[in-house]
Amino acid sequence: MKFWYSNSIIAYFLLPFSCLFWLISRVRYALFKLGILKSYRAPVPVVIVGNLSVGGNGKTPVVVWLVQQLQARGLKCGVISRGYGSQSKVYPLLVSAETDPIQGGDEPVLIAKRTGVPVCISANRQDAIELLLKQQHCDVIISDDGLQHYKLQRDIEIVVMDAKRALGNGFVLPAGPLRETAARLASVDLVITNGGENQYTDAVMTLVPNYAINLVSHKKCLLKDFKQASALAGIGNPQRFFDMLQGLGIQLTQAQAFQDHQQFSAQQLSQFNDNEPLLMTEKDAVKCGQFAQQNWWYVPVDADISGQKATALLDKIEQIAKGK
């Protein structure tokens, strides 16, 4: 909603509903904290990678980065996800790199492709963890999203935030984009801002693109070799992807934004020019492989997250996982 990120009068008309949303969420949070509502404690440490606001903030690159960093420290990781957009008839569902993204969801399939670790999806996080641990030993479970899923106890909480959009107008739903107020940030372990710093930053994430990969031939090509192209993005913040490409000197003749988790078809993408490259995100590419064209390319990005607080958090997770 555009009015979430501006000083719009619409937000003030919706404030009574936001007050009700806030009250219900605080009561629910208190009931879990007091133990009146039951929550699940996993037998291994759980790390939540979530956000306060709705929409794309960059959680998936953080999950991939976190898995890779912990693997480098000798820890075995598993990932759970709600699997938003998946259409499986059975849950919990183990997701691999070969899973149909319609069944497993685009983000879980992408995480499985990039990390090679077991991924399990279910709206019931306990079921997902239990199935995951039956299949493979894990030292750490990473939850893609779920900051507000208080049925699952957690050891570490990481919040990912878009540096520019931040917390929008600061209101909770529906007047603003927030699921919880900014005060919640005081209780999390790390705030990662995507694309720069703001007043909440503990660590900055930069998404680093180096090359594009052809969906048909799997050939790699440096992005600096693309002078002109079309682009599409079905992610939470498509403009970030378009800005990134233009910042690399690529002239976009067409930039088409789709809704997050968009399911694509060959007919739907026939609007794009066959005579020039079509660039898309890696998340979109996992859904286009079966009908890909020779001129379609996806742009993988790697998260660069550095700083003393990020390193200290990795040390803390390692210590918890190893029981030190």
Automatic annotation (TrEMBL):
Catalytic activity: a lipid A disaccharide + ATP = a lipid IVA + ADP + H(+)
Annotated transmembrane regions: 6-24
Class of this enzyme: transferase
Residues binding ATP: S53, V54, G55, G56, N57, G58, K59, T60
Transmembrane helix as UniProt keyword: yes
GO molecular function: lipid-A 4'-kinase activity
SUPFAM superfamilies per record: P-loop containing nucleoside triphosphate hydrolases
Pfam families xrefs: LpxK
Swiss-Prot/TrEMBL keywords: ATP-binding, Kinase, Lipid A biosynthesis, Lipid biosynthesis, Lipid metabolism, Membrane, Nucleotide-binding, Transferase, Transmembrane, Transmembrane helix
Alphabetical list of InterPro entries matching this protein: LpxK, P-loop_NTPase
This enzyme's EC code(s): 2.7.1.130
Pathway(s) it belongs to: Glycolipid biosynthesis; lipid IV(A) biosynthesis; lipid IV(A) from (3R)-3-hydroxytetradecanoyl-[acyl-carrier-protein] and UDP-N-acetyl-alpha-D-glucosamine: step 6/6
UniProt similarity note: Belongs to the LpxK family.
Function field: Transfers the gamma-phosphate of ATP to the 4'-position of a tetraacyldisaccharide 1-phosphate intermediate (termed DS-1-P) to form tetraacyldisaccharide 1,4'-bis-phosphate (lipid IVA).
NCBIfam families in alphabetical order: lpxK
Name of the protein this chain belongs to: Tetraacyldisaccharide 4'-kinase
Organism encoding this protein: Actinobacillus porcinus
